[in-house]
Design goal:
Order of helices and strands: HEEEEEEEEEEHHHHHHHHH
Strand content: 25-35%
InterPro entries: AraC-bd (IPR003313), Homeodomain-like_sf (IPR009057), HTH-like (IPR037923), HTH_AraC (IPR018060), RmlC-like_jellyroll (IPR014710), Tscrpt_reg_AraC-type_HTH (IPR020449)
Structural class: alpha+beta
Organism: Paenibacillus mucilaginosus 3016
CATH architecture of the largest domain: Sandwich
Radius of gyration: 24 Å
CATH superfamily of the largest domain: Regulatory protein AraC
Helix content: 40-55%
Number of helices: 10
GO molecular function, one term: sequence-specific DNA binding
Pfam families: AraC_binding, HTH_18
Number of domains: 2
Largest sheet: 6 strands, antiparallel
Shape: elongated
CATH class of the largest domain: Mainly Beta
Keywords: DNA-binding, Transcription, Transcription regulation
CATH topology of the largest domain: Jelly Rolls
């Protein structure tokens, strides 16, 4: 399974189109024979008991379980006759489309596998149910503003999922320490921070700290710090006419030439090129 950070990164690159939303209360004899799935879909179990068989493996279908089905997956679904299933479902298409260094990247679903597949346990079920209720309600309405609202609620649903997985993933003081150093970098990126200092703050060896930080955050500690500094520099380059040396110093670099090399490595442009292209007012 992807880490929460990796999952968020993948989902953030997708454009999702809803095909169908629904709420289903099963009869006691409900049973779907083994079939090959045609569409991407998400099922959130909210009541009852049952068994979903995916590729020959049996999974419990019960409250707190979320199923993500993908085309070609062979699935059989049945309910417990004494506790009939109740669930929300969402059927959708998607494509991958995002901008990277001012270049648009496009991949269709055949080229970009959906990052969720199979059964997941969720803990924030009430919030997910509420969002599914909203999607179900909005699906019954029409209009451009309603369509925009559906997109927002769907994104919020995926965000809730990522946050849920992240909360489950975070276990013990080690991960809390990783997040502590992440927050510290956000507040102190102007200072001359070192990997050794951050690892010591987390109470870990440098190598262990680096591995855990990359696993949970998605960047190495130094890459994360670099992106914080470059993002702040972008703001200053666009919104001010400060000299390059001043901007470099304000984001933690004493050498403006080194700062320029780092900036170009991250953005693909020199600071001056970036400012010329994006600044809100003309340069002198």
């Amino acid at each position: 399974m992807l880490t929460p950070g990796e999952l968020a990164a993948r989902l953030n690159k997708l454009v999702v189109s809803i095909l169908l939303v629904g709420h289903q209360k099963c009869e006691s004899h409900w049973h779907q024979k083994s079939r090959s799935i045609k569409y991407h879909s998400v099922w959130l179990i909210i009541k009852g008991r049952g068994t979903f068989t995916i590729g020959g493996t049996h999974y419990p279908a019960e409250p707190g379980k979320l199923f993500c089905f993908t085309p070609g997956m062979v699935v059989e679904r049945t309910t417990d006759p004494e506790q009939p299933l109740e669930y929300y479902f969402l059927r959708f298409h998607y494509t991958e489309c995002y901008e990277e260094k001012e270049q648009w990247i496009y991949r269709n679903a055949a080229e970009s596998k959906f990052p969720l597949e199979g059964m997941y346990t969720v803990t924030n079920t009430p919030q997910l149910i509420y969002q599914m209720e909203q999607l179900d309600l909005l699906w019954k309405r029409r209009g451009h503003m309603t369509a925009m609202r559906r997109k927002i609620v769907l994104q919020d649903f995926f965000l809730t999922l990522v946050a849920d997985f992240r909360a489950q993933k975070i276990a013990g003081d080690t991960t809390a320490a990783i997040e502590l150093t992440q927050d510290y970098m956000i507040g102190h990126y102007r200072e001359p921070l070192t990997l050794e200092t951050l690892a010591q703050m987390a109470g870990l060896s440098v190598s262990h700290y680096s591995r855990l930080f990359k696993k949970y955050i998605g960047y190495s500690p130094i890459d994360y710090l670099t992106h914080l500094r470059v993002d702040r520099a972008k703001e200053l380059l666009v919104l001010s006419d400060y000299r390059l040396k001043s901007i470099a110093g304000s984001v933690g670099y004493t050498d403006e030439f080194y700062f320029s090399r780092i900036f170009k490595k991250v953005t693909g442009e020199s600071p001056r090129e970036y400012a010329k292209k994006h600044r809100f007012f003309p340069t002198s």
